[in-house]
Design goal:
Helices cover about 35% and strands about 25% of the residues. The protein is α+β, with helices and mostly antiparallel strands.
Length: about 775
């Protein structure tokens, strides 16, 4: 509100200065219609602004003057000297009040009733009392031509580039420390001046959002709907010209959301939704872009209806139906298309989203859609800052240089680091960075510049794009620079992977990467719900399915396993797999782990192994190849009997068997007993060599810990050929004997495995 008030004061002060000559001229010639219209427009504007800014005294004066001038314009009253003087007195008083508001000082209202009374026909001529005029505060704002601001920005950009070049040259030469200090001072001054000049063209996007509540209310009322509007990010600043370009597309999108997207109250009740539709408009800055998001909880885009409409115009329906889901949604941008059958005040004229996209693309922006049928539609408008200087990281890929906004990069790591592990799942790669699993995108492949060039591929930039994060593989990280970014040619911006162009101090043109566009081009999909309904959330809305890895098993069948138990996918040599101790086992990382497979493993030099973990133990599962990561549907058809297959789910209209991790670990995971909590058995008496050679492996296989050190505090003592009273009672004692018979003393024959394990289990239960 303070910004609006200051703008009102500046506009009123400027208009009063320009109007002073008009008022004097109108006094000399009251019949001059042009000057009368100018004065009328002034008091009319003041009246409208006062109502919004809650300035009742100004509103009262301007309203009275407007009424009188309206009668003069209508020919109902002839302006005489008394009327002209009264209007002049009101205008002067308006000026005094504006100056008092700006100065924050008080101004009594004495005489204002007389000024208003003097406007009435037949009143005596008023001579305004000599009320002390409020002292005018020093001007805190000035209006500049946009062309002048553009020249300032261009000059500032050249200064930054010159500073960067000078800094680069000095880094490569022996220089006087005093020169370096002078350069540092100049750099600080240039940075401060750059920020100041950049902000001269900026305006809060609230200037765009402030008119939306009234428009939403009126549009919804005209359609018999009720819509609640939520606005976020009104404080985000954007170039003033960009705000003007966005105004019409935003209005069109919001009217479409109310008319096409949000259902009628009856339709919403039938769909299980609350009667009041919800519409969200939010703005945020992302690197060198401003993102405006419009989301509703309506019906989403009806792609079937769009296809039928286009088919009616002669388009090939079969080709339309073969499009991807994303391409079907983008049919809404087709020129002349309207999903409405009847023409109304809001829509149905065939002037639709194609105009919106054309306007946005004209300024180097783009429009993205995210529709969920029956749940709503989310539209993202991304527009660049027309001219901006931003910090960037310069990277190399396939011998070319690109800039990445520094704000989008979380960290940069070396791919050869021990903390980094790269796995391949089907045709995609996944990188694990300190237990954080991220999709991996190779920059050269996305840009189509890799070819057969042999690159080092040693650096990974962890990039955040708002919806999620991913790792961007580059050949090298070269430098960090502050660069002047401008929109690139429309054909380049249309690719969706570039955010602009720049000319660094090297003189070689360079493109700024759009990290969000690269993620989309690589096919990355981050989970983002369209505007959620609070009532559905409170009632326990549909829960997202479990993530699972789909793979091709050794018998050729497609199967899936919950992703939570998959630690990694590893290629192992054939000689690492052996039959040992009655089952297949895998030697890996200096350990032996059990291995499960649907058939015998023989004849191949390498095998793909799923390493499955439950937090305690680990087993391997041999597969042919990984295929995909999916979200499992809620409905699972259970298997007829317990076994390695828990059931089947329907994926892409094809049944896929689901592995049962519980059964796999129960069957193969006994080696994984938690050694930290297993009972500790102390072996003593008799021949220590026999106890260590025969008993210790048997107990450890059964999951017990074993010690031969009598100084340790054990949970149970196994004593061979010892008298019953030969041990302290600090721990239970299980006595073993060497001879088969003579079991009347409570001891156990040392080769009676079942009796020994039963006795130990009984002791463990009684702890």
């Amino acid at each position: 509100m303070d910004d609006l008030l200051q703008e009102f004061i500046a506009e009123t002060r400027e208009t009063l200065e320009a109007l002073s000559g008009e008022i004097v001229a109108w006094e000399a010639n009251p019949a001059d219609r042009a000057r009368l219209d100018a004065i009328f427009r002034f008091v009319h504007t003041v009246k409208g602004s006062c109502g919004f800014l809650d300035l009742p005294r100004l509103a009262r004066l301007s309203h009275a003057a407007e009424d009188v001038l309206a009668t003069v314009r209508a020919g109902e009253r002839v302006p005489d000297r008394a009327l002209v003087n009264a209007v002049l007195a009101v205008v002067d008083r308006i000026g005094e009040l504006v100056e008092a508001i700006d100065a924050g000082s008080g101004l009594d209202d004495s005489g204002e009733d007389l000024l208003i009374a003097a406007l009435e026909e037949g009143s005596e001529e008023v001579i305004q009392a000599a009320a002390p005029a409020a002292q005018r505060a020093a001007a805190r704002s000035v209006r500049l031509n946009v062309d002048l601001l553009d020249r300032m920005m261009s000059g500032m950009s050249d200064m930054v580039l010159a500073r960067n070049e000078l800094s680069r040259r000095l880094r490569n030469a022996e220089v006087d420390p005093q020169i370096e200090a002078a350069l540092e001072r100049m750099s600080a001054t240039v940075a401060d001046l750059r920020d100041t000049v950049t902000r001269t063209r900026m305006q809060k996007i609230d200037a765009l959002f402030s008119a939306l509540p009234r428009m939403v209310r009126d549009t919804a009322a005209s359609l018999g709907k009720s819509v609640n509007l939520q606005i976020e990010g009104a404080e985000v600043e954007l170039d003033r010209e960009m705000i003007e370009v966005l105004r019409d597309p935003l209005v069109h999108i919001i009217r479409n959301a109310i008319d096409h997207g949000i259902e009628s109250p009856e339709g919403r009740r039938a769909a299980g939704k609350r009667e009041h539709g919800r519409l969200s408009v939010a703005a945020r800055q992302s690197g060198n872009q401003i993102v405006v998001e419009i989301a509703d909880d309506g019906r989403g885009i009806d792609t079937e209806r769009l296809i039928r409409k286009l088919a009616d115009t002669g388009r090939d329906e079969r080709a339309l139906r073969s499009l991807s889901e994303r391409a079907k949604q983008e049919l809404v941008f087709e020129p002349g298309l309207s999903s409405k059958d009847e023409v109304s005040e809001v829509s149905g004229r065939g002037v639709g989203m194609d105009v919106v996209r054309a306007a946005i693309e004209q300024i180097g922006g783009r429009v993205d859609l995210d529709s969920q049928p029956g749940k709503g539609l989310r539209i993202l408008i991304r527009v660049p800052l027309t001219l901006s200087i931003i910090p960037t990281i310069v990277v190399a890929a396939a011998g070319q240089r690109f800039a990445v906004p520094r704000q989008a990069i979380e960290e940069i790591v070396s791919e050869s680091s021990e903390a980094i592990r790269v796995d391949r799942i089907g045709s995609a790669e996944v990188v694990t960075v300190r237990d954080r699993r991220l999709p991996l995108v190779e920059l050269a492949s996305v840009l189509g510049i890799g070819g057969n060039v042999c690159a080092m591929r040693t650096m990974l930039a962890i990039v955040s794009v708002g919806e999620g994060s991913y790792a961007l593989r580059v050949d090298d990280v070269l430098d960090n620079e502050e660069l002047v970014i401008k929109p690139a040619a429309p054909a380049i911006m249309a690719t969706g992977v570039y955010a602009g162009q720049t000319l660094p101090d090297s003189g070689r043109p360079m493109l700024l990467l759009d990290c969000g566009g690269i993620a989309r081009d690589a096919g990355l999909q981050f989970i983002h719900d369209v505007l959620a309904d609070e009532a559905d959330e409170a009632a326990g809305a549909e829960v997202e399915g479990v993530q699972a890895l789909v793979f091709i098993d050794l018998d050729g069948a497609r199967r899936a396993v919950p992703l939570a138990v998959v630690d990694r996918i590893e290629q192992v040599a054939g000689d690492a797999i052996r039959h040992a101790a009655g089952r297949m086992r895998l030697t890996i990382d200096g350990r032996i782990i059990p291995l499960a497979a649907r058939c015998e493993l023989a004849g191949a030099s390498t095998w793909s192994i799923l390493r499955l973990k439950d937090g305690v133990s680990e087993i391997g599962y041999a597969i042919a190849e990984a295929a995909d990561i999916v979200s499992l549907p809620a409905e699972i058809v259970a298997a007829g009997a317990p076994g390695p297959i828990a059931g089947a789910v329907l994926l892409d209209d094809e049944p896929v068997e689901l592995l049962d991790p519980h059964w796999l670990f129960a069957e193969h995971g006994e080696e994984g007993t938690d050694s930290a909590t297993a009972p500790l058995c102390l072996l003593t008496g008799g021949d220590d060599g026999w106890m260590r050679t025969f008993v210790q492996p048997m107990l450890e296989t059964a999951g017990y810990r074993v010690t031969l050190d009598a100084g340790e505090t054990a949970d149970v003592v196994l004593a061979l050929d010892s008298p019953a009273d030969a041990h302290a009672a600090s721990a239970p004692v299980v006595r073993l004997r060497s001879k088969r018979g003579c079991d009347g003393d409570g001891s156990i024959w040392r080769y009676d495995r079942d009796a020994l394990l039963g006795a130990l289990a009984s002791v463990a239960r009684g702890k």
